[in-house]
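in:
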């Protein structure tokens, strides 16, 4: 009996050590930063709008130029608790003004902060990890030109065990993948561009794809719609098997530009802010997004019908 107990204790200790190492925060190799030039601020602004930074990080209710003050403060309700969106303005204390570009790139692609701690995946680094270093460099340069804010967001309100940051490392082993979500046969340059925008900076799948019980995206039903994480209702299915099946690529591009559907309805809910961001992209990028959405596999709705 004692022998079995000792074997159990040693086995548990080995498992604990292995899990500790597996859950360690990662960082980009120094080689990832080689070859980068001075940021292109004009392009960085386009990446900024494609990434939807203001939708979460601007103060709730902000309008016009106030949306460029990334003071945080938005509360995101979830099954795991309430996440409070942080200040990412250039303020050196309340924001990320004390970060380096290396810190920023690691947050976007590895999901770690400037202290090397895991970030919770309420921040969509599972999508941002697909962004190019050149785009991140331009985005970082543009963000340095934005106003600073001294607002300090509250701490996240998460219960045990969801408040254990180290455990996020194990979650990342399952869900943090830098490759493309889909392999699209014979994809032309336009579809490839749309795929990059949707799967990467646009992080469309973070809302439009259902999740499993531990919060991972179900990539086999990519973009098939999901329960609204912020409250009642659903986020629609945007595959060719969903509610926009009858829309043409031109209809989709026009909706992203204007907010109007082919039925002359207007954008609503959380998509209002997303559409406002998409309207600032080039027409070519909106058309690329539309081309990709017409090329993805169709799926039935990924949320319950009742």
């Amino acid at each position: 009996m004692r022998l079995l107990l000792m074997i159990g204790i040693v086995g548990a200790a080995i498992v604990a050590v292995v899990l500790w190492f597996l859950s360690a925060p990662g960082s980009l190799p120094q080689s990832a930063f080689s070859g980068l030039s001075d940021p292109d601020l004009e392009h960085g602004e386009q990446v900024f709008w494609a990434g939807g930074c203001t939708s979460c990080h601007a103060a709730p209710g902000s309008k016009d130029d106030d949306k460029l003050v990334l003071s945080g403060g938005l509360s995101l309700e979830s099954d795991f608790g309430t996440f409070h969106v942080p200040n990412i303005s250039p303020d050196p204390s309340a924001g990320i003004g004390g970060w380096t570009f290396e810190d920023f790139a690691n947050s976007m692609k590895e999901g770690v902060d400037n202290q090397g701690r895991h970030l919770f995946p309420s921040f969509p680094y599972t999508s941002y990890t697909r962004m190019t270093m050149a785009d991140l460099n331009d985005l970082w340069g543009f963000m340095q030109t934005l106003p600073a804010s001294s607002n300090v967001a509250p701490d996240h309100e998460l219960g045990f065990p969801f408040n254990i940051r180290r455990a996020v490392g194990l979650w990342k082993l399952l869900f943090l993948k830098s490759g493309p979500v889909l392999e699209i046969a014979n994809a032309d340059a336009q579809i490839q561009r749309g795929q990059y925008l949707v799967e990467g900076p646009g992080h469309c799948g973070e809302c439009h794809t259902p999740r499993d019980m531990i919060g991972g995206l179900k990539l086999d039903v990519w973009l098939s719609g999901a329960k609204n994480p912020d409250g009642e209702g659903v986020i629609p299915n945007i595959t060719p098997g969903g509610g926009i099946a009858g829309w043409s690529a031109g209809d989709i591009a026009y909706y992203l530009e204007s907010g109007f559907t082919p039925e002359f309805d207007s954008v609503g809910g959380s998509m209002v802010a997303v559409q406002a961001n998409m309207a600032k992209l080039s027409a070519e990028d909106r058309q690329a997004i539309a081309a990709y959405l017409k090329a993805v596999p169709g799926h039935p709705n990924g949320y319950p019908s009742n």
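note: The first strand starts at residue 75 and ends at 78.
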